[in-house]
């Protein structure tokens, strides 16, 4: 975990290791699909928000389950690739589960 974070300061959410929370650095959709940038911002992928990949599908094309703030979403691989995150872990998945369980919600 530490080696990954030390070697890449900013990287795609698609490449983030499971369970660690990072900060959204930017959202950069392709020029031919600007609606993706607006949509991702609308659902909470804003600079400085904490985000984690909670689960990955079996195949390389399978969606990712991600947590942003107090919400969880399934994102396609290409959608996750538009989200750039900073390689500073905020907390672990276990910390997030404890936090959400205290609030009475399932993680």
Instruction: Write down the overall mean pLDDT.
Output: 81
Percent helix range: 25-40%
The strand line-up of the biggest sheet is: 1-6-2-3-4-5
Count all strands and give the number.
Answer: 6
In short:
With 107 residues, this protein is α+β, with helices and mostly antiparallel strands. It has 4 helices and 6 strands.
Structure description:
Helix content is 28%, strand content 29%. The chain has a six-stranded antiparallel sheet. Residues 1-6 and 94-107 have low confidence and may be disordered. It has 107 residues and is an alpha+beta fold. Strand 4 and strand 5 form a beta hairpin.
Q: What's the topology here?
A:
Layout: H1 2-7, E1 10-12, E2 21-27, H2 34-42, E3 50-56, E4 64-68, E5 71-75, H3 77-81, E6 83-86, H4 93-102
Antiparallel strand pairs: 1-6, 2-3, 2-6, 3-4, 4-5
Task: Considering the chains and any ligands shown, give keywords for the structure.
4 helices, alpha+beta, six-stranded antiparallel β-sheet, disordered N terminus, 107 residues, 29% strand, disordered C terminus
């Amino acid at each position: 975990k530490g080696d990954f974070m030390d070697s890449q300061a900013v990287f795609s959410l698609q490449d983030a290791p499971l369970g660690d929370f990072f900060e959204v650095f930017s959202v950069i959709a392709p020029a031919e699909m600007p609606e993706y940038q607006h949509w991702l911002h609308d659902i909470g992928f804003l600079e400085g928000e904490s985000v984690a990949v909670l689960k990955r599908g079996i195949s390389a094309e399978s969606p990712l389950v991600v947590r942003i703030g107090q919400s969880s979403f399934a994102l396609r691989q290409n959608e996750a690739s538009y989200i750039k995150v900073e390689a500073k872990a905020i907390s672990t998945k276990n910390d997030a589960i404890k936090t959400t369980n205290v609030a009475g919600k399932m993680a």
